[in-house]
Design a protein that fits this description.
Dimeric_a/b-barrel; alpha+beta; Alpha-Beta Plaits; 3 helices; oxidoreductase; 4-stranded antiparallel β-sheet
Length: 96
């Protein structure tokens, strides 16, 4: 299992446009084979900051996710140009 935490820091005032794009993305990703969880969160303190929690069966599922046409259209071509900063960190769950 692989977990991706992504922090999106939007250009000032772009939070609503980013949220609109991410709302379109959510149901598409939730249907992906290998996607276990895809949670999009918007900061209560700063409406131009988002935290995404993504959990996939394995690294191959995460790679397939990034290669989809809708990822390219929504994230690469729509969301990323509206950001000042995008931070991504990968994790593996700790199990007993």
């Amino acid at each position: 299992m692989i977990v991706l935490i992504a922090n999106y820091h939007c250009r000032q005032g772009m939070g609503d446009k980013v949220e609109e794009a991410l709302r379109e993305m959510i149901p598409l990703v939730e249907q992906e084979k290998g996607c276990l969880q895809y949670l999009v969160n918007r900061s209560k303190d700063n409406p131009d900051v988002f935290l995404l929690f993504e959990q996939y069966e394995d690294e191959e599922a995460l790679a397939r996710h990034s290669e989809t046409a809708y990822f390219q259209r929504i994230i690469r071509n729509t969301v990323i140009p509206l950001l000042d900063k995008r931070e991504r960190t990968l994790y593996t769950p700790v199990k007993p």
